[in-house]
Amino acid sequence: MKTISKYISIIFSLVLFINYYSFSKSKSFIILQSTTSTRDSGLYDYILPNFKNEYDIEVRVVAVGTGQAIKNSMRCDGDLLIVHHKESEEKFVEDGFGLFRKEFMYNDFVLIGPSNDPAKISISNSIVDSLNIIRKNKFRFISRGDESGTYKKEIKLWELTNFVPNPREDSWYYSVGQGMGGSLNIAVNKNAYILSDRSTWVSFNNKRDHKILVENEPNLYNFYGVIPINPDKCPDTKVSQTSKFVNWLNSRKTKDLISSFRVKGQQLFYTIN
After folding, report:
1. 138: left (phi > 0), else alpha (psi -120 to 50), else beta?
2. 65 and 164 co-located in one domain
3. Which domain holds residue 207?
4. Number of domains composing the chain
5. Burial classification of residue 174, based on how many CB atoms lie within 10 Å of its CB (0-12 exposed, 13-18 middle, 19 or more buried)
6. Are 226 and 33 in contact (CB under 8 A)?
7. Residues 189 and 259 occupy one common structural domain
8. pLDDT band at 4 (very low <50, low <70, confident <90, very high)
9. Residue 82 — φ and ψ, nearest 5°?
10. Of 15, 61, 71, which Cα lies nearest the Cα of 41?
11. pTM for this predicted structure
């Protein structure tokens, strides 16, 4: 009986060790501070399981607007950053919070509006001309009005018209302070124009009679960069795991995976070789 008990004790200890080892391995993770468009499109659900399977490292995504993602990263609430506002990203690196910025993919922004297009902006397919027409005729325009990369892009486009709307003075311009989905809902309900990233618009279900009116214009390109957080600023950053992720993200295999991602039959992201 003592021998049997001894073997049972050994087996029990081995089971506990194996379970603990498996649990410990499964707890290996990195935190990715990210813009919302990559998550809401379904891209992360599509590609990240491959990284987990290959390296046994989980990627936990915190998806917020670009500005908030950068602020979170400056507070050391992440291991790496993926956003889409180059100027803010470069400043983040210059200020010592990021090791480097690696541009790895792009898509584009689109101008959405009612199908009947009361401003008749689709004729020119120029974003600058379109915004000028909207302003001069005071057609309703919905702005996210937050710290997102989309809002920063919108303001930059308005600056190209030599005019930036003021929601306190321009009654046709609505600054709603919401995410892309909520802002699109408001635009649809108010029969208004709005700037959106293409991936969110394609995935969006409440389109009603709204459609893309301006697209495929050089001023509308939308580039995404990945930035590892600097351990000099954030000592707890998981440098080794993050390095593996950045290399994996920029590998030919992963770029092919990103290129193969489709929503409703449409390719949403294009990789940079």
Report:
1. left
2. no
3. 108-220
4. 2
5. buried
6. no
7. no
8. low
9. -130, 115
10. 61
11. 0.84
